[in-house]
Amino acid sequence: MKNITNITRLSLLVVVVACIVACSKEGPLEADYVAPNELPANLVSGSPLNDRILSLYDDFGIVVYTDITNPRMYEDLVSEEGLNISEERMPADTTAAIIYINMIEDEFINELPLDNRNLVPRNFYLFENDLIVGTSSYNSYEYISKLWYNSNGDLTVGGLKNEEMDSTKLKQTFYYGLSNIFRNDATNTNSFYQPFVDIKTDAAVYYWQVNSLDSAYEKGFLTDNQNLIKSHQQDFDLFAAWAATTPNSTKDSIFNLYPMVRQKYDLVDAMFRQEGVDLDIVNANWEESPYNPENN
């Protein structure tokens, strides 16, 4: 009887250990925090914008928030940190919001490999405001898009205004956010993000040294807007946004003159390739896209 009991206990132990081992294996990247993606209670059909929001939700389970009376439009992050947009939050212009929702489907979901579509944020928050935080030029940070802290499922997007809408920047919001998701993975941090930072550290280059576009390129940055490159994370993610929308001829001319830009680009590009996303293909598709302002 004791033998039977011992065998039973041993069998249970084997099962538990097997479960622990299986659970410890690395799987596909997932959100650190699974944000609820429930349609707002007051969202009803009958307007072009609401109908487009509902159709995206029906097809992909993605919620787009545009109503600034919704409390979730002010949370931004699920930690003590926050995206404190410098100005009063303004709702996205309707036409710009509809175009952006179309781009979520056409320029992001449909462009990703099937096994990476689970990484598309489940909730988008659209504003007219540009995503600029801070109270002065010394502490201002600007973002192409803002992934919520500890949540790969929530993305805040600004600049959605009819008259000054920049569809190239809207395209960049997807890959800027996706870069953030990828580099949050510990393996990618060690293999790609940290070497990216090391290049800057070894060369002793800093954002505050940039005072022109040429000086930016010389120091391995992509812009002379210091607010876009103040943090290593901003600098890294900007390379992904730039890679998705910059013609190869332009990239090659910069690479030939500024080797540090090429070094940093190669690390971001390699990270995306490891995750199954070829930024060269993304870029080639953008060259032919009807959303590309160069084609209109």
Describe the overall structure.
There is one protein chain. The chain is built from 10 helices and 6 strands. With 296 residues, it is an alpha/beta fold. It has a 4-stranded mixed β-sheet with strand order 1-2-6-5. A two-stranded antiparallel sheet has the order 3-4. A hairpin with a 6-residue loop joins strand 5 and strand 6 (154-157). The radius of gyration is 22 Å and the shape is globular. It starts with a helix and ends in an 8-residue tail after the last helix.
Strand content: 5-15%
For the CA atoms, what is the radius of gyration? 22 Å
Total count of helical runs of at least 4 residues:
10
Q: How many strands?
A: 6
Q: End-to-end distance, in Å?
A: 82 Å
Based on CA inertia axes, which overall geometry fits?
globular
Instruction: For the largest sheet, list the strands in their spatial order.
Output: 1-2-6-5
Short description:
This protein is of the alpha/beta class and 296 residues long. It has helices at 2-24, 48-60, 94-108, 167-183, 186-203, 213-218, 232-245, 248-257, 259-274, 279-288; strands spanning 63-65, 123-126, 131-133, 141-143, 146-147, 154-157.
Helices and strands in order:
Layout: H1 2-24, H2 48-60, E1 63-65, H3 94-108, E2 123-126, E3 131-133, E4 141-143, E5 146-147, E6 154-157, H4 167-183, H5 186-203, H6 213-218, H7 232-245, H8 248-257, H9 259-274, H10 279-288
Structure keywords:
296 residues; alpha/beta; 4-stranded mixed beta sheet; two-stranded antiparallel sheet; globular; disordered N terminus
